[in-house]
Amino acid sequence: MDESTLVNAGAINDGPKASTSPAYGLQQQVLSPMETLAQSISTIAPSTTPALTVPLIFALSGAGTGLAYVIATAAMVLVALCIASFARESASPGSLYSYARASLPPVYSALTAWALFFAYVMTAASVMGGFLNFAYVFLDLLFGPRGAHVSPVLLVVFVAVAAVAVAYRDIKISARLMMVIEAISVFLIAVVIAITLWKHGLHLDTSQFRLRSFSAQGVRTGVMLAIFSFVGFESATTLGSEARDPLRTIPRAVISSALLSGVFFLICSYGEVLGFRGSPTSLGDSSAPFHYLSSQAGISPAGWLIDAGVLVSMFAATLACVIAASRVLLLMAHHGLAHRRLQSIHAQSETPGAASLLSAALAFLPVLVLAHRGVSGADIYGWMGTLAVFGFLTAYTLAALALASHLHREKRLSFGGGILAAAATLAMIAALLGNLFPVPPAPYRYFPWIYGAYLALALLWYWIAGPKPALND
């Protein structure tokens, strides 16, 4: 499919015909709709949320954990609808950057690109930390106290090298592997939650919906963590060249991943809060909640199987983030926002080899340093994940603004489209402010400064190097 290919794919409000961008040397139309969906689902890594994120949110929100996920789901669906509106009109490896580039002034589109690349790299680093955390769970099971002496640096090197090797070789193999891993993990979690709900009787736990059962401040803080459960749902948009019928399959993947994940998170949070009622250990203090829930459900081995699934899911998420980051970086290199050598495509596998290697290296290095200094995998997961949220919220906000600008320029800005763009923008700004005020404790209070310094350096590069003239993307 070349630059002149036009596909009538039902653009917004029956607007102009939609088109795909240049393929930039990537494989073309090799991924099925399910494999395209697998990219977004694996970047979200839904199986990690019940095991890691829900207990953290419960510690903040208590019985309001489910409400935090209701709010986060609504916000992410708004953003998904904005992104899908763009994805019905154009397909490009640049993801949200391409949409912003077509609708916003160059400096804002550059900001979108750098924010999105940062977000994918930091998410990859975060899930490497999660992998490290769960790896020690199994090392302790297999080797006892000796397992704690296995070098964390060795474990981080393993997951980084394995992820980049698969991403470098073949996007189709990567997508299939991610789909299988997540399907198994989510199925096991669903079985435990289903048995938990059955054992507690088919009735509504009204205590989780009473306003007096939780504080508004706790829920607001919990929403920020709940949003991290969703980040990366839009990563299917980076497969604009490689997905079949991308102007249909990618919008569906974006919306489906946000909705399906939201429903899954809501059910799991509800079931976990219910299942831990009366437990000697609070859900917020549990490091392995599914060990307890599986035991209560009468299927104790499932707890270890779920932890194994989460461990492998961390690898899948690392792989998905490297794939997404490399394709954004590839397009940035074509437009002068990154070094031109990153435009190179591997001759045999038709993947962005140089961009994949650099993306993996940038995710690996901070994890390597932190692990070497003795920082736990759980802390790495939380710290890098918080940094990633700043990047995603920036990119999502600019994507929503780009939609309004695009529709206005095309004279197709309806009342509904304006409300959608405004609601998504306000939701993301509110979430961003929620990460800043009140000022969080150390080290989280320093993360906005780290992110701000990164953006300042990115904009400095932009002004020095200057973007290339616009391409048809």
How does this model look, in words?
A 3-stranded mixed sheet has the order 1-2-3, covered by helices on one side. It has one domain (32-465): Up-down Bundle (Amino acid/polyamine transporter I), CATH 1.20.1740. The protein is 68% helix and 1% strand. The longest helix has 38 residues, at 106-143. The protein has helices at 33-44, 48-61, 65-87, 96-103, 106-143, 152-169, 171-199, 216-230, 246-275, 289-296, 301-334, 353-372, 377-409, 415-434, 447-465, and strands at 6-7, 18-20, 90-91. With 473 residues, the protein is mainly alpha-helical. It is built from 15 helices and 3 strands.
CATH architecture: Up-down Bundle
What order do the helices and strands follow? EEHHHEHHHHHHHHHHHH
Say what oligomer this is. single chain
Radius of gyration, taken over Cα atoms and rounded to an integer in Å: 21 Å
CATH superfamily: Amino acid/polyamine transporter I
Class in CATH? Mainly Alpha
Describe the structure concisely for a colleague.
By secondary structure, the protein is mainly α. It has helices at 33-44, 48-61, 65-87, 96-103, 106-143, 152-169, 171-199, 216-230, 246-275, 289-296, 301-334, 353-372, 377-409, 415-434, 447-465; strands spanning 6-7, 18-20, 90-91.
List the helices and strands and how they pair.
Blueprint: E1 6-7, E2 18-20, H1 33-44, H2 48-61, H3 65-87, E3 90-91, H4 96-103, H5 106-143, H6 152-169, H7 171-199, H8 216-230, H9 246-275, H10 289-296, H11 301-334, H12 353-372, H13 377-409, H14 415-434, H15 447-465
Parallel strand pairs: 2-3
Antiparallel strand pairs: 1-2
Helix pairs in contact: 1-7, 1-9, 1-11, 2-8, 2-9, 3-8, 3-9, 3-13, 3-14, 4-5, 4-13, 5-6, 5-11, 5-12, 5-13, 5-15, 6-11, 6-12, 7-9, 7-10, 7-11, 10-11, 11-12, 13-14, 13-15
